[in-house]
Design goal:
Chain lengths: ~525, ~525
C-alpha cells in the first residue's frame, strides 16, 4: 500500500504544497518516507463544507445502517492490518504484540459501537402521550431522543497510534452517533494515519455515503488544527494528549462565536493507595504489579500510577520495587520530543530536591539525572505525605516510566490527603478485607476526584466495555460528565431533540407509533420495547 | 409569615449588614418591606463550606430517601402556598391564576423528580461481569453509574418567580441528583425567594439532613454571584435569564482554575413557519393562536414566538392579527428594568427602519415608539425574507410582547433560511398534510437549530414531563446537550463513576449483586431489573 502524503478531503486526495514533515523512527531518529504535506486552509474549508453537507444524510440513517458501516471499517482495518501495524511499528517503536493487541482493540471497539447503535437504547427515546382531556390544560404528544450533535473534529493521540487515533474511540463514537468526522492526524504517526484514513475513506465510498462523512488533515504546525476547530460547521472536538494542548484547545472551543463542547482527555497521575493490611500480606506482589504497571509501554499511558501512598517503612515492598526497577532496561520512548520532556521532568524533580530519588538503573552524581531517560529507563522517587501535601507540583504528571512513593503514618490521614488532590482519571486501593471495611471515607473522597476506582488491581489497561469510565474531573479531562472509552463515549456526540404533536410519518422511525425499530423507549415514564 | 431580609446560610439566618435592596411592586413602583441585605463574602464562604460538607452525606442517600425529601419540599410549598403566591403577586405583578398554576407546576416538578429517583433508571447503572478465563487477558468486574456532580449554584429567573426560581427546575433537578444547592435569589422577587427558601430550609431540618444541603443568598449587585460561582467547592451552575448575564456567567465558569459546567438558558426568538396549505385553511385561527402566544405573560417567556415566516400576501392572517393586537391593552411588565429594555428594543427597531411596524395599540409619529411599552402593549413588525436574511440583528430577541412577520415567496426558500438561523429553544410548523409531506428538508435543518419542534401549536407553555427538551444550540443555551425542563434535566448534575473489582459491600447499593434496589441496569449489555 502506498502512502501519498496528502490529506484526504472527503473522497478526494488533497494537493496543497504547504509545509512538510516526516514520520520519524524513534529507535533510530531516521526520517521515514514519504513527506507529508500540511493541508491548505482552502482544503480545511472544503472538508468542513463536505462534512456539513454529509451531516443530515448520515445522521438520518438508522442505527442498523450505521452499524453496517462501522463493521465495514473494522473489516477494512483487519484486511490491511499487516501493513498498518508494520508502519505503526516503524513510527512509534512500539513492540509488535502491543500493536496487534491495539489493532484488535480498535476493530473490537468499532464493532461494539455497532452493537450499541443496532440495539438503540442509547438514544434515550421518550414518549409522553397526549392527554387531550387533562384539566385545566390538555397535554400535547411529546417525544424526544438523542440526535447527532454535528460534524466532529478528532485529534489523534501519540501514545495509541491505532486505538486513540484516526479510527480510535473518538472517531468510532462520533460516527456511531451519526456525525461526520474530520481527523487531525498526529504528526508522530502520519503514515499509520494515512493508511487507516484510506480504509475509512474506502468504507465511506463502498457504503454509498456522502464523501464528507470522513476527512483526514495533516498539519506540520497548528494552523490547520486552529482553523478546523474554529470552523462554524464543527460542533464538537475530541482530543487525547497533553494538558497544555488540551487546555488550549478547550479555550479555543469556548471562545468561538458559537462555543462548542471540547472533550480533552489530558492524562493524570492516578493515585494508588496501599493500605496497611494489604501491605502486610502482599508487599512483594504489589511491588511487582506496580513495577509492571508504571513502566508498561515505557510509562506512556494516561492511567500510569504515578502517586503511590504507602505506610511508612514498608521496607519489603520498597526493596522489592528497587531491585526490580534497578534491573530493568529501557524500552525507548514514542518520540524524540516525549523522550526529552521525560528527561527534563526527571531532571527537574531531582534538581528541585522536593523528592528523593530511590530507584532507577544508573548511578549519578548529586543533582544529575539518575537514569537514561532517552532510553525510557524507569525512575522512582519518594517523599513523605507532609512534603507531598506542601509541594503542589509533585502531583503533576511526568509522562514516562516514573512514579513516586508517598509515605503516610496512619490511614486516618488518607481521606484528607485525597480531598486535596485535583482530578485524576483513576484511583486504586490495595486493601484486604479489614482495610476495605474502614475505607468508606477514603472511597467517598475518591469518588469526587476520579472517574474510575479500582480494588487490588492496577489502572493501566482500560477495558472497552459498557461500564468503563475513562474520564474524571479537571485537569484529568475538560468535561467530567463524560468518558472517552467505553460505550458511554457515544453520548458526547449527541443532543436531545423534542418533537411535539408531530404527524407520525414526519417523526424519526425511533419515535414512531408501534416502535417499528423495536428499541427500548420510555413511554409515559415506563421503559418498554413495545 | 415574616420575612427577615437576610440570606439563609444552611440552617442559619445571615446577619451581614451590607448593601440593601427592596422588592418593588411593578404596578405601582412602590418599594416593598422588608429591606434585603446582601450576603457578606464570609457568609458565601460559610454556605459553600456547608455545601461541601453536606455533599457526601446527601449524595450517599438512595433515590427513595431523597424522594421523600423532595416530596416534603413540595408539601411545604403547598402548605404555605397562599402567602407565597400573595407575595409573588406583589413583587411580579403576575395575575393570581398564573401564579397558582406556576405553584402547581413547581410542586408537581418536585414530585416528578421524586418519582424519577425512586425508579432509578436515570442512574444508567451498568455492570460488565468479570471474565477470568478470557484470552489473552482476563476481564475485571467493571460497574458504573451516575453520581452527584457536587454543590450546585442556581440563579433564580425573574419571569418565573416560582417554577424557575428558588425551588424551581434547576434546584429540583440538582437536589434530585444528590447535590447541595446554593440559590442566588433574583432581586426582582426577594420576598418570594425568602418564603420559598424558608420552606426548603425547614424540609432539610425535618429530614435530618446536613444543613449545607441548601442555602439562599441575597445580592444587591453581582459580588455575591461572582464569589459563589468562583468558589472551588462549586461544581456546576444553573441559570435562566438574559443572554448578557448568561454569557458572562458561562465565561466565569470556564475561566475558573477548575472549569465547571454552566447551564445557562438565555432565551430565543423561536421561529414559527406558517406553510401555504395551513395558511389557506386556518389563517384566522393561526393569527389568534399567535396573538395569544406572543403576548402571553406580556411576552416575557423564553419560548415566545418572535419570528413568524409566512407566505407573502396572507392578508386574511395579517388583518386578523392586526385587528386583534390593536384591540389589546397592556398587562404590565415584570419589573421597571424589563419595561424600559422592552421600550428601548421596540424604539430601536422602529428607528432602525429595518422592519416595518404593522400592528400595535397606539398611533405615533415617524421614528417614535408606536406603543406604550411600559404598560406591556404589543408591537408587531414585518419584513421581507430577503431583508431579514440581510439584517442579522433582526433575529435577536426583544424580551416582551413583540413579534416579527417575515414574508417568503416560496416554501423552497425556507430550508436555506432555517440553515442561516442561530440556535433557538423551539421552532414551530403550521402545516396541513400536504405541507408536512414536503417539509422534510426544513425539519432536518430545524433539528440542528432548536431543542423542540412543534406541529400546529404554539411554543409557549412548556410541559414538565419525561420527553420535554427545553434547550437548544447556542445562543439559546450555553450547552446544547441538555434541557432545563423535564426529567432529563437531572442529567446535568451528575457524572459517571466506575468501580473495578470492588468488594460488594463497598459498592453503592445500586450496583450490588442481586440488585437490592430493583432498578433497571445494563448487565453485560442487556437492560434488566434482575
Amino acid at each position: 500500500m502506498s502512502i501519498s502524503g496528502f490529506s484526504l478531503i472527503g473522497g478526494q486526495a488533497a494537493t496543497a504544497a504547504g509545509a512538510t514533515f516526516s514520520g520519524i523512527n524513534p529507535a533510530t531518529g531516521e526520517k521515514l518516507e514519504p513527506l507529508f504535506h500540511t493541508a491548505s486552509l482552502e482544503e480545511v474549508e472544503q472538508a468542513a463544507a463536505a462534512a456539513a453537507a454529509a451531516a443530515p444524510v448520515f445522521g438520518a440513517l438508522s442505527g442498523k445502517e450505521r452499524g453496517v458501516f462501522l463493521r465495514a471499517i473494522a473489516d477494512g482495518l483487519t484486511a490491511d492490518a499487516e501493513a498498518i501495524i508494520a508502519r505503526a511499528q516503524l513510527e512509534s517503536g512500539l513492540p509488535l504484540p502491543r500493536l496487534q493487541g491495539e489493532m484488535g482493540r480498535t476493530t473490537g471497539q468499532l464493532k461494539l459501537f455497532a452493537e450499541v447503535i443496532e440495539e438503540g437504547s442509547w438514544l434515550d427515546a421518550r414518549i409522553d402521550a397526549a392527554l387531550p382531556e387533562r384539566k385545566p390544560l390538555p397535554r400535547s404528544d411529546i417525544r424526544s431522543m438523542l440526535r447527532p450533535i454535528g460534524p466532529v473534529v478528532v485529534f489523534g493521540a501519540s501514545n495509541f497510534p491505532l486505538a486513540f487515533s484516526v479510527a480510535g474511540g473518538d472517531t468510532a463514537s462520533a460516527l456511531a452517533a451519526g456525525n461526520p468526522v474530520m481527523v487531525k492526524a498526529h504528526p508522530a504517526h502520519p503514515g499509520t494515519s494515512a493508511l487507516v484514513g484510506a480504509v475509512i475513506q474506502k468504507a465511506v465510498a463502498a457504503a454509498g455515503l456522502p464523501e464528507g462523512v470522513f476527512s483526514l488533515l495533516f498539519d506540520a504546525g497548528v494552523a490547520v488544527a486552529q482553523a478546523v476547530v474554529k470552523h462554524p460547521a464543527v460542533k464538537a472536538v475530541g482530543f487525547t494528549g497533553s494538558a497544555g494542548a488540551g487546555k488550549a484547545l478547550t479555550r479555543l472551543c469556548h471562545e468561538r462565536e458559537e462555543p462548542i463542547p471540547c472533550y480533552a482527555e489530558m492524562g493524570s497521575t492516578n493515585p494508588l493507595f496501599i493500605l496497611p493490611g494489604a501491605m502486610k500480606e502482599r508487599a512483594a506482589g504489589i511491588a511487582a504489579g506496580l513495577q509492571g504497571s508504571f513502566t508498561l509501554g515505557s510509562g506512556q499511558f494516561c492511567t500510569k500510577p504515578g502517586l503511590v501512598f504507602l505506610p511508612g517503612g514498608s521496607s519489603e515492598f520498597v526493596d522489592a520495587l528497587k531491585t526490580g526497577v534497578d534491573a530493568m532496561g529501557g524500552h525507548g520512548m514514542l518520540t524524540p520530543g516525549i523522550a526529552s520532556k521525560y528527561t527534563e521532568g526527571v531532571a527537574e524533580r531531582v534538581k528541585s530536591g522536593k523528592a528523593e530519588f530511590v530507584a532507577g538503573t544508573q548511578a549519578a552524581g548529586e543533582g544529575q539525572t539518575p537514569v537514561d531517560c532517552a532510553k525510557g529507563q524507569a525512575a522512582v522517587f519518594a517523599v513523605s505525605l507532609a512534603q507531598f501535601m506542601a509541594e503542589k507540583d509533585l502531583e503533576e504528571e511526568i509522562f514516562g516510566p516514573t512514579t513516586m512513593l508517598i509515605y503516610y503514618d496512619s490511614v486516618d490521614e488518607l481521606p484528607a490527603a485525597a480531598a486535596k488532590l485535583h482530578g485524576h482519571l483513576t484511583a486504586t486501593l490495595h486493601a484486604n478485607a479489614e482495610d476495605a471495611a474502614g475505607a468508606g471515607k477514603l472511597i467517598a473522597e475518591l469518588e469526587t476526584k476520579v472517574g474510575r476506582i479500582l480494588f487490588n488491581g492496577f489502572p493501566t489497561g482500560v477495558e472497552v466495555c459498557h461500564a468503563m469510565v475513562h474520564g474524571g474531573p479537571f485537569p484529568a479531562t475538560s468535561d467530567t460528565r463524560t468518558t472517552s472509552v467505553g460505550t458511554r463515549a457515544i453520548l458526547r456526540f449527541a443532543r436531545p431533540v423534542c418533537y411535539q404533536d408531530f404527524p407520525d410519518a414526519a417523526l424519526p422511525a425511533e419515535l414512531r407509533a408501534g416502535n417499528p425499530l423495536g428499541i427500548m423507549r420510555m413511554v409515559n415514564g415506563k421503559l418498554e420495547r413495545e
